[in-house]
Predict the structure.
Amino acid sequence: MWYNFYLMRTALQTVFAYCLISTVACAAVAPHAKFEDGMLSKTRPAGWLQGACRLQAEGLTGHPEALSYPYDTCLWAGTIPRMGTHGQDWWRYEQTAYYTDGLLRLGYALGDKTFIEKGEAGVNWTLDNVSPEGYLGNACLWDAKNFKLKKGYDMWPFAVFFRAMKAKYDATPDERIPVALARYFLLYSKEHVSETRNVVNVEGILWAYSHTGDKKLLELAEEAWCMRKPLPPESKNELAPKNCANNDAIHMHGVSYCEEMKVPTVARITAAADAKPGIYNFGPLKVTVLNRVLPPAKDWKYFLDFWQHPWAVSRYFNVEPFSKEHYAKVEPIYRTLAECGCKALTTTLLDLPWNHQCYDGYYSMIGRVKKADGSWVFDYKLFDEYVEFGRKCGLGPDIACYTMCPWKYMATWKEEVTGNGERIPRAKRVAEGDALAGVGMGNGSRRRLRRLPSATTSSRPCATRALILADSAARLNHL
């Protein structure tokens, strides 16, 4: 159950984190904190994300009465009573921190006042009940005199709850939050922050630094991370600078890995093709540019074939298949595939080649009409148009044709006389089935058409069509 809250909170954080705005949060902290999350109050989910949020709101998140301990308590808006011997004292606050964070973000995303009020109650209680020393949260998380604190985990619940406080600040800025957080974090030594999951608080420490400019926070975060060492392999390993920088296998708790992996900064820098080899400095980061240039994706030797599904795109965006609006939605997707090195364009030559095993059906791009005299007419207009479009997007040079041998050898066509659609199975007149298909009938269920001489298929789909028809004729002659 708690993992659902973890995933929900992580998904919402990820979506909002990508809404980055290039601003310096505090002039005193340059060159750090160049970016900050997009404001929750200015971000609203739409499409499938909105649907997923509403499902969560109508499910467990919106029905705490259906949840068991500790989700059916006051959460962080007071003291959560200890129930039995399950879990240590930090556990119930870790779990309810997950829930509070997800509840708040979901409330802000959907504009749900009930969720917002319930989540903010815990943040307000925490701010209103700061200890004289500056500790935040329930005393069982920091009072070593009266509670048994687990080494390396006493700060962990607050690493989770910090995100709920941050969410409230992003939605409705409350300057008490960064001030209280800065005071709280500076109560701990670098050795203490460095221990086990406590190090995840580096995220909150740096956020507090970005809003207060207190350099002690930056020093605390950097030193706590740099002094960490991997634990022996026989125990639950932890991330540290050493094992983040080598190729050794990491063995550790899944949630710990996801949380701690955010602590080290990973930067991706793309050098222009004409950049001169050498060492480039980006603040404290040094990048070595080698005397090698990655060729364009179309020239890569590795053969990559991600199947495309234009009907799925049509259904998702609610546009007519192969209309101008449809192609406009498909183009950025196909161009991205081409940039990844995809070398094949997916085409369908028969309806439902896999008997509709996909959520959306694949349908024929070739029209077939059986004339009154028994001859066949094949319409390649859509096929030609689609292949030309795929070429423009950079997909190819191969054209993957599905399929020469369809499910149960079924094929569809229209009768010229009646205008009715017909289907034919393998058991009925196999030769006629080959003719109406209008495609090469190889023994396999899939035929990849390799590049013909550059003057033909590289730019003209009609050459591929000619190859298909020629192969069909050869097969019919054989029959």
Q: What stands out?
A: The longest strand covers residues 278-282. The longest helix spans residues 89-110.
